[in-house]
Amino acid sequence: MNSCLYVGLFTTGIVLCSRHPEVKWAQRIDKVYITVQLPDAKDAKVNLEPDGVFTFSGSAGTNLYELKLDLNDKVNVEASKISVGVRSIFCIVEKAEAKWWKKLVRDDQRAPHFVKVDWDKWVDEDDDGADVNLDGMDFSNFGGMGGMGGMGDMAGLGGLGGMGGMGMDDFEDDSDEEEVSKPQAAGHAAEAEKTESAEAKTESAQSS
């Protein structure tokens, strides 16, 4: 169920609606894969507690998104990792005890409607073995850091204060700018070398 907050005076204002982002999950005997699907998220905040409480909040467009999940069992925050992408946040949550969970949330709770099985990463308990291919992903630890607010790169989220002021696309923009600036700099250097060479030839011709 969504709730909306109306901000403004009289007929002019902004409507901010709180919604649940889609969550996909899969597991291995020692870890859980949690993907929060929210393209172009802004001000994303993620928190993971040792007792298994997983929370997320962020915005996209005029909508606010938030969720709280009581995971099936306790987790190892320090060993857990997170990767922030332009379309989603991918978390590897290490279980405190290596065992197969019957479902993502606690046994006495019903799974929320926005939580789906990630069939691309899912394996049956009898087939538990190979981990998910993580090539090309940049991970940081959940634990051991004070927070992500005001930091330029990803940090741990154990007890964090969130990612205030940073959107997921900020990371993508930084890398894109670096990739674009490198060929431009190389082009300017090549033009300078050509100019110097031409000037040297002119001077040589005039002196002869």
Features:
globular; CS_dom; Immunoglobulin-like; alpha+beta; single chain; 5-stranded mixed beta sheet; 208 residues
Describe the structure.
The chain has 208 residues and is an alpha+beta fold. The protein folds into 2 domains: 3-166, Sandwich (Immunoglobulin-like), CATH 2.60.40; 167-208. Helices cover 19% and strands 36% of the residues. It contains 1 helix and 11 strands; from the N terminus they run βββββββββββα. The protein has a 6-stranded mixed beta sheet with strand order 10-3-4-9-8-11, with no helix packed on it. The chain has a 5-stranded mixed beta sheet with strand order 1-2-7-6-5, with no helix packed on it. Strand 3 and strand 4 (31-37) form a beta hairpin. The longest helix is centred in the C-terminal third of the chain and has 40 residues, at 168-207. It is globular. Mean pLDDT is 72; it is low at 5-12, 144-157 and 159-190.
Briefly, what is this?
The protein has one helix at 168-207; strands at 3-9, 12-19, 22-28, 31-37, 42-48, 53-60, 63-70, 75-84, 88-95, 115-117, 140-141. It is of the alpha+beta class.
Percent strand: 35-45%
Number of helices: 1
Determine Rg (CA atoms, Å).
24 Å
Largest sheet: 6 strands, mixed
Q: Would you state the CATH class of the largest domain?
A: Mainly Beta
- Poorly predicted regions: 5-12, 144-157, 159-190
The percent of residues in helical segments reads: 10-25%
Element order: H for helix, E for strand: EEEEEEEEEEEH
Strand tally, please?
11
Topology (elements, then pairings):
Blueprint: E1 3-9, E2 12-19, E3 22-28, E4 31-37, E5 42-48, E6 53-60, E7 63-70, E8 75-84, E9 88-95, E10 115-117, E11 140-141, H1 168-207
Parallel strand pairs: 2-7, 3-10
Antiparallel strand pairs: 1-2, 3-4, 4-9, 5-6, 6-7, 8-9, 8-11
GO molecular function, one term: protein-folding chaperone binding
Organism: Zea mays (Maize)
Keywords: Chaperone, Cytoplasm, Nucleus
